[in-house]
Amino acid sequence: MSDVPRIGISSCLLGQRVRYDGAHKKNDYITESLGRYFEFVPFCPEVAIGMGVPRPPIKLVRVGSSVKARGVRDTELDVTEPLQDYAEKVAPKLAALSGYILKKDSPSCGMERVKVYGAHGVPRRDGAGIYAERLMQLAPHLPFEEEGRLMDPVLRENFVERVFVYHRWRSCITPRLTAKSLVEFHTRHKFSVLAHDEAVYRALGRLVAGSGKGALPTLAAQYIAKLMQGMRKPATRARTTNVLQHLFGFFKKKLDAEDKREMGEIIDNYRRGLVPLIVPVTMLRHYLRRFPDPYLSQQYFLAPHPDELMLRNQI
Ligand code: SF4
Questions:
Q1: Does 19 contact ligand 1 (Cβ within 6 A)?
Q2: Distance between CA atoms of 111 and 132, rounded to whole angstroms?
Q3: In 139-250, which residue ranges form alpha helices assigned H by DSSP?
Q4: 12 Cβ below 6 A of ligand 1
Q5: Ligand 1 center from residue 105 Cα (angstroms)
Q6: Which of 102, 164, 167, 199 could bond 5 through an S-S bridge, CB–CB 3.0 to 4.6 Å?
Q7: Interhelix angle 278-290/237-249, nearest 10 degrees
Q8: Cα–Cα distances in Å, from 83 out to 80, 107, 108, 133, 189?
Q9: 190 — phi, psi (to 5°)?
Q10: Confidence band of 212 (pLDDT split at 50, 70, 90)
Q11: For position 270, what pLDDT does the model report?
Q12: What is the pLDDT of residue 96?
């Protein structure tokens, strides 16, 4: 399996001129920054179903209890089924991906809050693109995110962290998962999960404790479902502070009073929002170099994604 996570993406975000009007929606952060660490696999569902470029624009329309993708000008045009069928066709390719970035507001690719038009009045922003919605149903654990939400530092860090977790999981089960590799995977992600959701952290611990008993494929399916559910919940400052305190606990007996006071103050400054997460994490890594600990040095919480992305400098 490739070391570089492969990410599905709406083609227009890479600068491909595939939009209905022949334009693109190139996103420089995605192409210039994330592009250094991810390999992108572009999909344009509207072109793939033969609508061409340029093409008549479509919008979401509420019809009874369902939502359809119909022409803006030609109301007889209905591409709902072709878009859903194309998502089914793409589904087998998702097994080779570790994430997916969608174009916001699109009646095909939008992840959420897409305008849905009713018979009268203003549209409601409560829809999802027809292709995207089907795709997310077909791959419920794959990390999905929209390019607009990626501009939010917390959501951005959360997405990239999930991509790397899922990518490592895919490596772990390839060519085959063993009880030993599941325990090792879980052990290395403990503190990462704890920062997101303590209940999920405990549930995963119970699942892994039973890994010698039941059928491993069933257990693995439960494990990854629970893990990705927990990781979707953004890590709060309070939960992350709790993890930092846990990690600091490993060094307490080794540090003198002044170092302990300084580290305690740094964690507290992070808790109060005075310094970003990279500050206490850098200090913990520093102490880990001074006082090596094989258990701690394997924790992905201390290095969940490439430092060069600077994701923890802004949260
Ligand atoms: S939003 Fe989706 S359907 Fe529209 S141009 Fe971009 S990739 Fe194609």
A1: yes
A2: 6
A3: 153-172, 179-196, 198-209, 216-232, 237-249
A4: yes
A5: 10
A6: 167
A7: 10
A8: 5, 10, 7, 10, 37
A9: -55, -55
A10: confident
A11: 98
A12: 96
pLDDT score of 213 more than 90: no
- The 3-state DSSP class for residue 266 equals helix
Q: What span, in angstroms and rounded, lies between the C-alpha atoms of 226 and 10?
A: 27
- Pure H helices in 44-79: 45-48
Residue 154, CB-side half-sphere exposure with 13 Å CA sphere: 8
Confidence of residue 120 (pLDDT cuts 50, 70, 90): confident
With 0-12 / 13-18 / 19 or more C-beta atoms within 10 angstroms meaning exposed / middle / buried, residue 165 is buried
Question: For residue 234, what are its two tokens?
Answer: 């953004």
Ligand 1 proximity of 79 Cβ (cutoff 6 Å): no
| pLDDT reading at 75 higher than 90 | no
Token pair 């001129």 in the structure block, residue: 17
Q: 240 CB under 6 A from ligand 1? A: no
Q: From the CB of 8, is ligand 1 less than 6 Å away?
A: no
Run of H or E including 132 = helix 130-138
